[in-house]
Amino acid sequence: MHHCSSLLQRTVDSVNLLQGLSNRDESARHEAAVTIQRIFDSWYFGFGSPAVAGFLETVANDTGGATLDTSMHGLITEQIPDLLRILHTAPSSDIRSAARDILRDLKMDHMKCMVGEPNEGDPFYTVCIIESYTVFVFLPSLQTYILFREYWFQWGRLNNYINVMGYHPEYLECYMKLKDHLFRGDLPLPYPDRYYIAIIAAAQQRCIYLVLFFVRQFISSGGPLSWLQGVQYGPPKWRQLCGLNRDLSDRPWKITADDIYNLTHGGDSNPLKEALSLSELMHVVAILSHVHALACFIFGCGIRPEIDNYDGLINLNVDNCNEAYIYNNQTSNGSSQNNLHSSENGGTCSCLVEPWDDHVSLTFLLFV
Predict the structure, then answer these.
(1) Domain ranges of the chain
(2) Which of 179, 190, 256, 294 has the most CB within a 10 Å radius?
(3) What crossing angle do the helices spanning 26-44 and 93-106 adopt, rounded to 10°?
């Protein structure tokens, strides 16, 4: 699908450009938003790096806001789905405001070329996006809201399945600690390799939702894009995991001591001679099992696709965005009140929808 190929064509810098908006320091987030805006303006006028203050304004006045160099407009376009995701899911008002201001600038007269028209083939072409994301109203407790903010600061996004887990904050807190330890903790596997193993685990379960998430994290961590071109392009060390990945997913009772021995010592069934240390294998099994189980949760709960998984969402109405997660801990009389206010258009972003179609999968990553 188009959103898969678009993601695979992005660079590390492109994927990480908006990460400054997930900084814990509000002043740092503001500085990041200003920098992002100047980068976009520079790209619009064909400059490869942010210009000095005042220069772009002079260029805009001299050209009437027009540009003759459109070579870098694609760099702006590929950021729009991410900005829309931030606009609709960020748990802090200053982050949403920053994303809204940037998107509004992109819709100004001199930037209209950045916002295309919807296509009939787009998933939400005839659907009101706001209404489709308002299937139910979820008013998290203060504990859940704090966890949402922490997850945002850790991962730079608030996944739809995390919203569903927010109904059970005690479980969500444990899950966040586990995920952070598996993928960011002081463990033997390099960071890109952790995400690559998560990708092949999600692909084994044919869960495109998780494949896209972990591909994004893989690119963000500096993983080689060549690994994603097919199983044969991946490192031999991880190619030998095909049997373990399949058995852990579908029939874990078939895994024997001989399988573990071959992976850790090499043997006739391991001609690649890429033996894993016991600590590496334990880390691999933990990631595979975690992602397999998470994929079942994704399918079982019918988690909807993320906003930034569809390029066709770039026409989402910026002015009528959903004001989710605006926590107000004081009522008018000063008493404490655990309440979340949403916009007049409805409640917070819904996360429930039908599961992905069976034909949607990154088959080139499947170990079959």
Answers:
(1) 1-122
(2) 294
(3) 10
The single-letter DSSP state of residue 312 is G
Give 37-68 pLDDT, tens digit per residue.
Answer: 888 888 877 665 555 444 445 544 445 445 55
Q: How many of the other CB atoms lie within 10 Å of CB of 35? A: 13
Give the catalytic positions in this structure: 207
pTM above 0.70, yes or no: yes
Quote the DSSP letter at residue 358: T
> 176 in helix, strand or coil?
helix
**Of 223, 176, 180, 181, which Cα lies nearest the Cα of 199?**
223
Alpha-carbon distance of 17 to 137, in angstroms, equals 31
pLDDT digits (tens, 9 = 90+) for 212-266: 999 999 999 999 988 988 878 888 888 888 889 999 998 999 998 988 888 888 6
Residue 180 to residue 172: CA distance in whole angstroms: 12
Backbone φ/ψ region at 266: left (φ over 0), alpha (ψ -120 to 50), beta: left
Question: Under a CB-based contact definition with an 8 Å cutoff, are residues 291 and 305 in contact?
Answer: no
